[in-house]
Amino acid sequence: MKVAVLDITGKDTGRKVELSKDVFGIEPNNHAIYLDVKQYLANQRQGTHKSKERAEISGSTRKIKKQKGTGTARAGSIKSGVFRGGGRMFGPRPRSYSFKLNKNLKRLARQSALSIQVSDENVVIVEDFNFDSPKTKNFVDVLKALNIDAKKSLFILDSENTNVYLSSRNLKNSKVLKASEINTYGVLNANKIVITESSLEGINTNLSK
User: Fold this and answer.
1) Least CB-packed of 72, 74, 114, 185 within 10 Å?
2) What strand order describes the sheet that includes 174-178?
3) Ramachandran angles phi, psi of 82, nearest 5°
4) Is the full-model pTM beyond 0.90?
């Protein structure tokens, strides 16, 4: 499929690029998308949660009442989780939530995400651009020219571009990634995907079979 190439002022350059059907035109696999997004969100979790258990509570170690004859349950420690101020029973411990997915499934998920955005006409191809210096105003001007300043946007560049990245960093609704950093969550979380012309080759290389 062919898509028109725009410049950063939003005007048609008169050129068109061919989007690979193997990357941008497949039948989306919803389960692959689910697993990849689940892994991405799981990897964001710090897993540093911790509560004190009975062995970590400060308190008396004496037996608080006699074993028999009280008519209530036996109790040997005030630090037990059944008493107020005692340790938490089966509380959270530090752990990693990350899990592995195979490379082919992750590739399928990202192809599916891009295909969904293309079919919904949410992908814009622009010619390569750069700024002389990092300025948020320059990036905002690009968003307004492309008529996406009120939308959540994802810019995909061919390589690391410090000026463009720093210009976008203060904008909570815009994110800039390299072609090698594409992830399923980021693609689907954006309302508009802006792909630079030179980054298409990198996307095709990374996501083609």
Assistant:
1) 72
2) 12-18, 2-6, 123-126, 192-196, 153-157, 174-178
3) -80, -10
4) no
Q: Find out whether 88 and 49 touch, Cβ atoms under 8 Å.
A: no
12-18 vs 123-126, strand pairing mode? unpaired
Distance CA 87, CA 140 (A): 53
pLDDT 10s digit of each residue in the chain, 209 long? Answer: 888 999 989 898 889 999 999 999 999 999 999 999 999 999 999 999 999 999 999 999 899 999 999 999 999 999 999 999 999 999 999 999 999 999 999 999 999 999 999 999 999 999 999 999 999 999 999 999 999 999 999 999 998 889 999 999 999 999 999 999 999 999 999 999 999 999 999 999 999 86
- Which of 175, 184, 178 has its CA nearest to residue 198? 178
Q: Walk me through the domains of the chain, giving residue ranges and CATH numbers.
A: 2-46+97-207 (3.40.1370.10), 51-91 (no CATH)
- Give dist(CA 99, CA 109) in Å, integer: 16
Is residue 126 a contact partner of residue 5, using CB atoms and an 8 Å limit? yes
